[in-house]
Amino acid sequence: MTTTEIPAPTARPGRAATTPKHRPKREREGAAWVFLSPWVLGACLLTVVPMAVSLYLSFTDYNLFDPPHWIGLRNYTQMFTEDPRYWRSVVTTLEYVVIAVPLQLALALVVALALKSMKGGKAFYRSAFYAPSLLGASMSIALVWRQVFNDGGPVDNALGNGGWINKPGWSLLAVALLTVWQFGAPMVIFLAGLQQIPAELYEAAAVDGAGKWRQFLSITVPMLSPVLFFNLVLQTIQAFQVFTPAFAVSGGKGGPADSTLVYTLYLYDRGFVASHMGYASAMAWVLLLVIGAVTAVLFRSSRSWVFYASEGDR
User: Fold this and answer.
1) Structural domains in the chain (count)
2) Are residues 91 and 230 in the same domain?
3) Where is this region: Disordered (predicted)?
4) Directed axis angle between helix 184-194 and helix 122-135, to 10°?
5) Do residues 57 and 109 share a domain?
6) Are 153 and 168 in contact (CB under 8 A)?
C-alpha cells in the first residue's frame, strides 16, 4: 500500500499567513480599545466630565436653580477668610482622622494576629469580623449606632453618665467608634500579610531567645510594614471622606455645638441645604487637594519605615 502525501497548504504569493501572534499592531490595539471602550466611556461620563463641571462651578455662584454666575476666586477667599464654620469642620475632620484611623488599624492587627494563631474555625471568625465592613456604611446601622450612644441607650445604662451623642466632648468619639467597628477589610489584608511571613524567621528568633514581644517588633512589624502602609493610605483617604456616621448621629446638623461637623457634612450643608453649590464645589476641590497632599506625604515618609524584603533595605 502506498501513501500519498498531501502537500501542506501554502500562503498566496505576496501574502503572509496571519496568526494571532502576527496580527498587525494596529489591529491588536484596535481590539483592545473595543474591549476597553465601556470602561473608558463610563469613566468619562461619570468621572471626568462631572469633575470638570464641578471645577467650573467652584468659580461661580450657583444655587441649583439659576444659571451659574462667574465670580472667580470669591468662593475660595470666602472659605478661607470669612467662614469660621469651615475651619471648624477642618479641625473636626482632622480630629476624627487622628482618632479613628490608628484605633481601627490597631484593632484590625490585633484580631488578625489572633486569627492567625487559631487552629480551627478561622474561616467562620474571619467572615464574622468582616461583616461589619459590609454593613457599617449603611444609614440603618448608623441610626442604630445613634440609639446605642443616645440618652437612655445601652452605653448610658452601662456607664450611667448619660449618652455620648448630646455631649460635645464625646459625640465625635461615638462617630469614630463606628468607623473603628468596621475593621474587617484591613483585618483581612493584615491576615493575608501575616500568612506570607516565613515561619523560619520566628523559629530562628526563638532559638536565639527572643520572646513574643521581641519577635513582634523585630519580625512581624518590619515584614508587615508594606501591608500596614497600604492599609494606612486607604483608611486615611476614607476617613477624610466620612459622611454617613456623622450625618446620622447628628441628624445632619453636625451637633452638638458643631462637634460632629466633619468636612463632607458641611459640604453637604452648603451644597444641598443652603443651595450654594458653587461654594460646595470649591470645598470639594480643596478636599481633593488635601487628600492628595496627605497621600504624597505618606508615600514620602514610607521610605524611612516601610521594609521590602526583596530590596533588603528600608
Assistant:
1) 2
2) yes
3) 1-25
4) 140
5) no
6) no
> What residues contact residue 38 under an 8 Å CB cut-off, 6+ apart?
none
Q: Identify whether 107 is part of a domain.
A: yes
Query: CA distances (Å), 113 to each of 63, 217, 220, 225, in order?
Result: 52, 13, 10, 14
Of 219, 168, 193, 174, nearest to 105 by C-alpha is 193
Q: How far apart are the C-alpha atoms of 213 and 202, rounded to whole Å?
A: 11
Q: Please state, rounded to an integer, the average pLDDT across all residues of the chain.
A: 85
225 and 91 within one domain: yes
58: containing domain: 26-75
Single-letter amino acid, residue 110: V
Same domain, yes or no, for 30 and 153? no
* Each residue's pLDDT tens digit, 137-187: 678 888 888 888 887 778 777 776 677 888 888 889 988 988 888 888 899
Grid-cell match 440618652, residue found: 151
* Predicted structure pTM score: 0.83
